[in-house]
Specification:
heterodimer; A: alpha/beta; Rossmann fold; six-stranded mixed sheet; B: 342 residues; mainly alpha; two-stranded antiparallel sheet; 2 strands; 75% helix
């Protein structure tokens, strides 16, 4: 075999007493898409930080095309043709696409920008990415998430990257943008660029990657051809034990109706949504980004104003405010843990109890000891991994943060749980735990609305699935009457009869 | 929405203009028309001549806006880069005091003026360096340096203003003359200074790498760092350049007080400066701001007292009105921005 584009051998890294990486090796050929798989905390991000020069390894060596590569700062990685595309996009929203692409590598004469020289390079990169929405002069905050991501890829292309690392690139993309991204990745591969593709979604990995490496607890535990490995082979490598099933099912049966919507319309979205939800039922909501799924949940919960229609909870119609909805028995988990769902710099205890402090307060004074004890109970029940209940939420991994958010609505004793993308950006093991929690909650007679962009999980976990498009519910069917294709067609707005 | 503006670049450009500079400018025109109309009916009922809608008023409003306007040019860069400078007022007074001191101590004219301007750059550099190296938010650092600069000025002047009126040349004092001298200038030389500097800052922001980096810093600092921009030096440069404008504003203050260096004269001016930027469409969360918007903002702030005087509104009520205008301007801007982005 020819000299690999990148070879990392024997990489080790310790942070104090904890060992983040131990003797990890990774090799990428030019024109190869390599999958890097592992649960959260397996060491993927540390390994990539070492590759990008943000962290220095304790031991091991790296070579790019046979030459030693020892990056000391992010600029060194760029100079060596290594580009990173992170899960959280790194763009300046107020600058135009062109300015973002050229940021830090501007064509200049003296102190002046040379736009005439920049423009053709930018256009050439954008042409390869082929997205109609992308114009160099367009401010980035006006672009969709999918197009914004392409701006980052264009930045890598303009700097003549040899190796591009994609870290969970599809977690906030719509299905269509994902397809487009995969097309782009294939083009990059053909032009001889090496790619490291990090993802939790094994279906996705299979679609674009040819070879894989699995990390677990800071070690490389396996690698090989994706063709030769079954899904459960890879998952058991990831979690280190046999996973009997990815989707644990807890038997539950729907009971009496608890939530009903009568032609509910928001200011813009949703539009005239009517549906009924029973106790002990999990209702999935599928749809593309912008279909109005989040807006539906927000309108129900009183976060967005209602233009028309009614929300009835257990026979009463509460006022349209979150406070009234909480006392009526609704609980809401936001899709955006960072900005909205959790108070990031407050403790787990605070976050779990914010929506129900009454049990611990007397004349406005809080009984902190009792509160902490109760929260510890919930942490145990949900298996939240943390040093203590007083740890700040921002220090927890994504999966554990999500558990804290769910613990809040459970602690609140909500009867109806509105969950917006509860499994986004968390690892397979934690996902399975969350499905189990949802099943248990349903078995206890709670009703759940489960919004997700991951159709597979909806079809596994839910009793019924509603598909939304342009603010309306196009169709609700029992889970067994849907297939992934029919959900997708319905979401895109293609009627099966006409297609 | 997204696609409609992307398809029509002309419309997108028009919207962007409306979103940045044109909005505050229309606001200025609105305020002027409002006062002119009110003045017309007011003087008819009193039986006096109208006085607001005149060349003389326009000249005075522009003169009055020039000190705050020049300082606001620097503040615009800082706010675009995601910072704030609460020490601008005190720093301005310190620069004026330094200039007066150099005059009093019989230094030559170029030395005295350069000393004031360099003091401005120096205090800006200090602010930038402290923010970058101590990693404390700009609000707190400049809150501290505000008092430091005020105190330094008092130490230098021995706690009473330094009078250099007889030593400073006439042309310097004329920078802030209410009416242009010589008359063919149309507006005071100070106003011309402000306009020329404004054009330079507009070019700096639009056509230089520094300008792009300043926007990037205010828009998303971690992105700027990730793209290999030296954020520490960038921030120090931003504050140093801004300090130069504080120095020029200090010179204006010196001439406005008829050649006197008063270290306490800048108290509260920083808030007017920040208000001018914000009325002009600058975003305190960084990434947005425009030079022409800022100038319109400064002129709106200068027009209100004049209008109130012609309408016999007392200075106490003037302050209430200025406050209302600030809140209204920013609210309008927010509404417009929301409409543009969704």
């Amino acid at each position: 075999m020819s000299v690999p584009l990148l070879s990392m051998t024997g990489i080790s890294k310790h942070f104090g007493a904890t060992c983040a990486l131990e003797d990890v090796s990774l090799e990428v050929q030019a024109g190869e898409v390599k999958a890097l798989i592992g649960e959260n905390g397996a060491g993927k991000s540390t390994l990539m930080k070492i590759l990008s020069g943000a962290v220095r390894p304790d031991a091991g060596k790296m070579d790019i095309l046979g030459t030693a590569y020892r990056p000391a700062k992010p600029q060194d990685a760029r100079d060596n043709g290594v580009a990173m595309i992170y899960q959280e996009l790194n763009l300046a929203p107020d600058l135009s696409a062109e300015d973002n692409i050229m940021l830090g590598q501007e064509a200049r004469s003296g102190v002046l920008l040379k736009r005439s020289e920049q423009r053709p390079r930018v256009l050439k990169a954008l042409e390869l990415l082929g997205h109609p929405e992308l114009k160099p002069e367009q401010p980035v905050h006006r672009l969709s998430v999918g197009a914004q991501q392409l701006v980052e890829i264009a930045r890598a292309l303009v700097m003549d990257a040899k190796l591009i690392v994609f870290d969970e690139p599809t977690s906030s993309l719509t299905r269509r943008d994902v397809e487009h991204l995969f097309g782009v990745i294939r083009k990059l591969k053909q032009s001889g660029i090496g790619i490291i593709y990090i993802s939790h979604f094994l279906e996705e990995v299979r679609e674009v990657c040819s070879r894989f490496t699995v990390l677990r607890d800071g070690r490389s535990v396996g690698s090989g051809e994706l063709e030769d490995a079954t899904e459960s082979d890879i998952v058991s490598l990831m979690v280190g034990r046999k996973v009997s099933e990815l989707f644990p099912s807890v038997p539950h049966t729907p009971g009496e109706p608890i939530l009903s919507l009568e032609s509910l319309s928001g200011v813009r979205l949703p539009r005239g949504v009517s549906l009924e939800l029973r106790r002990g039922e999990i209702l999935g909501v599928a749809g593309l980004v912008g279909a109005g799924r989040t807006e539906l949940l927000r309108s129900i919960f009183g976060l967005d104003p209602i233009a028309e229609g009614t929300v009835t909870v257990a026979g009463t119609s509460p006022r349209n405010t979150p406070a009234a909805m909480i006392s009526a028995g609704l609980g809401f988990v936001s899709e955006d843990r960072k900005a909205e769902g959790l108070a990031q710099v407050r403790s787990i205890t605070d976050n779990v109890t914010y929506s129900r402090l009454e049990p611990y307060s007397r004349f406005g004074m809080l009984n902190l000891r009792r509160r902490r004890k109760n929260v510890s109970h919930w942490m145990e029940k949900l298996r939240v991994k943390a040093r203590s209940s007083e740890q700040m939420v921002t220090e927890l991994s994504g999966g554990n943060q999500q558990k804290v958010a769910i613990a809040r609505v459970l602690h609140q004793q909500a009867d109806v749980l509105l969950l917006d993308e509860p499994t986004r950006g968390i690892d397979v093991g934690t996902k399975a735990e969350i499905y189990r929690l949802m099943g248990e909650a349903a078995a206890e007679g709670k009703a759940i609305v489960f919004v997700s962009s991951y159709i597979t999980e909806l079809l596994e976990v839910c009793d019924r699935v509603a598909v939304m498009a342009r603010g309306r519910v196009r169709e609700i069917r029992a889970r067994d009457d849907w297939s992934e294709e029919s959900v997708l067609q319905c979401a895109i707005g293609v009627d099966e009869s006409t297609s | 929405m997204k696609s409609s503006t992307a398809d029509r670049p002309a419309l997108a450009t028009a919207q962007r203009l409306l979103g940045s500079a044109l909005g505050p400018f229309l606001g200025l025109i609105f305020v002027v028309l409002l006062f002119s109309t009110a003045d017309y009916y007011h003087s008819r009922s009193e039986g006096t001549d109208t006085s607001f809608a005149s060349v003389a008023t326009a000249q005075k409003i522009m003169r009055d806006s020039s000190k705050v306007g020049v300082a606001a040019l620097g503040m615009t860069i800082i706010i675009i880069a995601g910072g704030i400078d609460l020490s601008a007022g005190a720093a301005m007074a310190l620069c004026a005091t330094v200039t007066a001191w150099f005059f009093r101590e019989q230094f030559s004219l170029p030395v005295a003026i350069s000393a004031g301007l360099l003091t401005g750059c120096g205090v800006g550099f200090l602010n930038g360096a402290l923010i970058s190296l101590l990693r404390v938010v700009p609000f707190i650092i400049t809150l501290g340096t505000m008092t430091i600069f005020l105190g330094t000025g008092l130490v230098l002047s021995g706690s009473s203003p330094i009078d250099a009126h007889d030593i400073a040349p006439d042309w310097l004092i004329d920078l802030q003359a209410p009416y242009p001298y010589p008359e063919w200038l149309l507006v005071s030389s100070g106003v011309w200074t402000m306009l020329i500097l404004a054009a330079l800052v507009a070019l700096l922001l639009k056509y230089t790498v520094f300008g792009r980096h300043a926007f990037a810093l205010g828009s998303n600092e971690s992105t700027a760092r990730l793209c290999g921009i030296n954020v520490t030096w960038l921030r120090i440069t931003v504050y140093t350049i801004s300090g130069f404008f504080v120095g020029v504003a200090g010179l204006f203050q010196f001439t406005m007080l008829n050649g006197e260096g008063d270290p306490t004269a800048g108290t509260g001016v920083e808030l007017q400066v920040i208000a001018a930027v914000v009325i002009g469409g600058g975003s305190l969360s960084g990434g947005r701001g425009s030079v022409w918007g800022t100038l319109s903002g400064a002129m709106i702030m200068a027009a209100i007292p004049h209008g109130c005087v012609t309408l016999d509104i007392g200075s106490a009520w003037q302050k209430v009105i200025v406050g209302i205008i600030i809140v209204a301007a920013v609210t309008l801007d927010q509404i417009r921005q929301r409409r543009l982005t969704t």
